[in-house]
Design goal:
7 strands, 7-stranded parallel β-sheet, about 260 residues, Rossmann fold, alpha/beta, 9 helices
Amino acid sequence: MSGLPEPAKGSTALVTGASSGIGEQIARALSARGHHVTLVARRKERLEALAQELGNACAMPVDLADASARALFMAVVTDAKRDVEVLVNCAGIGVYAPFHSSDGERELQQLRVLAEAPLELTHRWLAAMVKRGRGAVINIASTSAFQALPYNAGYAAAKSYLLLLSEALHAEVAEFGVTVTCVCPGPVPTEFQEANEASFTEKLPKPMWVSAERVAQDALRGAERSSRVVVPGSALLSASTIANRYAPRGVALSIAKRVMAE
């Protein structure tokens, strides 16, 4: 049985970070499969344009770092009388700087978007999926989740949190017909790098890069197969990145520091 529910009347696939990049491509792919899509991001104009293009979609502009805004948005989704049968947590933000000299408020904003919001949204809608015996949660983490990253400490820690949360929930709800899949892409050519001043990515080998369209394709295929963790791209890339998860911590830190240093 597929871990990704088929489109159903009165259901929706909710995608955060849907205004660009991976989130947009996943939203497009779900819409192409016949799902009604609830598009969530901060940029209202982009969301509304995408919703109009897709047709069977609605735009919900919200800053997921704002707890009160999240609460209001979740209430609106509930009032819309559509069951969230697919939840994709993809909204992103990154702080790439030495932790001791970074902006403290932006570090907290990063934590709220990457960890707090996915936790709250998943907790809000997972119980109903379990009760119905169908549903899928797709959490977009990163290969950064596999190791500590100097100069990107809070980001890697938040992505690691999301990975471990996803793996635990995958084990908890599989018996109820619900799947939780954590997707851990490497570098992806999107607006994210420029928007978050992630210039270190320019040093990464081109074979490591995977398109947003490929990430979306692999993410949905992984959910269909009820996969626990997916590293988009080639098998070689998957093997090389997952190896970081099991490398001696000192070795991994030394290599990561050299890569991340400006």
